[in-house]
Amino acid sequence: MSHPLRQHIEELVKLTDEEFAFILGHFEQIKKRKHQYLVQEGDVVKKEFWIIKGCLKSSFIDNDGKEHILQFGMENWWITDYESFVKQTKSKISIDCIEDSELLYITLENRDKLTSEMHKMERFWARKSKFGRIALQNRVLSLLQNSAKERYDLLLQQYPQLFQRVPKKMIASYLGVSRETLSRLNS
Predict the structure, then answer these.
(1) Residue 63: its pLDDT value, please?
(2) Residue 18 carries which DSSP code?
(3) How many CB atoms lie within 10 A of CB 32?
(4) How many CA atoms lie within 13 A of 147 on its CB side?
(5) CATH, range 4-118
(6) Which residue, among 159, 186, 158, has the nearest Cα to 172 in the 3D structure?
(7) CB 154 within 8 A of CB 142
(8) What are phi and psi of 26, to 5 degrees?
(9) Model confidence at 187: pLDDT above 80
(10) Which of 90, 92, 58, 91 is nearest to 74 (CA)?
(11) What is the pLDDT of residues 55-106, one digit of tens each?
(12) What sequence ranges are listed for the domain Cyclic nucleotide-binding (predicted)?
């Protein structure tokens, strides 16, 4: 059975065994426990993470102390604070583990090196970035034009497994509704 990262990359570009070994040599593997942070607000982010196993969330705390969840991440998803990662500025968000997690990470230096030496990976990340922008655009449009019930139904349709893995208060935060409103949507 091939490595899960290879399977993930090969959804977009085919690789030889030698190419994948070269790619994997640019990554490190880590394990994090539930509630551990990968990124904390104010950090300068040095790594982009690919989730082998687990569930994570990226979020920020507003001036009133309320948490707003921007993204969940599950198996085969990429997560980081991209602005901080690319620009090497202080992070505006935090990323922490909802479950015990296993991850691969790549530094910006290794990612730049890999894309300059291997055009297949440059194409892979370009396509991944396009898909990410599409997903972000759809999320913003959904927040602007859909009712809370429509956003809930869409999330349930797209990611039913999320509802088994994530506490309801986090789902409510992601949808931009109160826990009480979520309970009404759920009934």
Answers:
(1) 93
(2) H
(3) 19
(4) 5
(5) 2.60.120.10
(6) 186
(7) yes
(8) -95, -5
(9) no
(10) 58
(11) 999 999 999 999 999 999 999 999 999 999 999 999 999 999 999 999 999 9
(12) 33-110
pTM: 0.91
- The tokens describing 35, both together, are 């509630």
Pairing of the two strands 78-79 and 28-32: unpaired
Annotated domain spans of the chain: 4-118
Residue 155 contacts residue 174 (beta carbons within 8 Å) = yes
Distance CA 45, CA 162 (A): 26
Judge whether residue 2 has pLDDT over 90.
no
Contact 80, 125 (CB under 8 A): no
* Cα angle value 158/52/4 (rounded, 5°): 95
How many CB atoms sit inside 10 A of residue 3's CB? 14
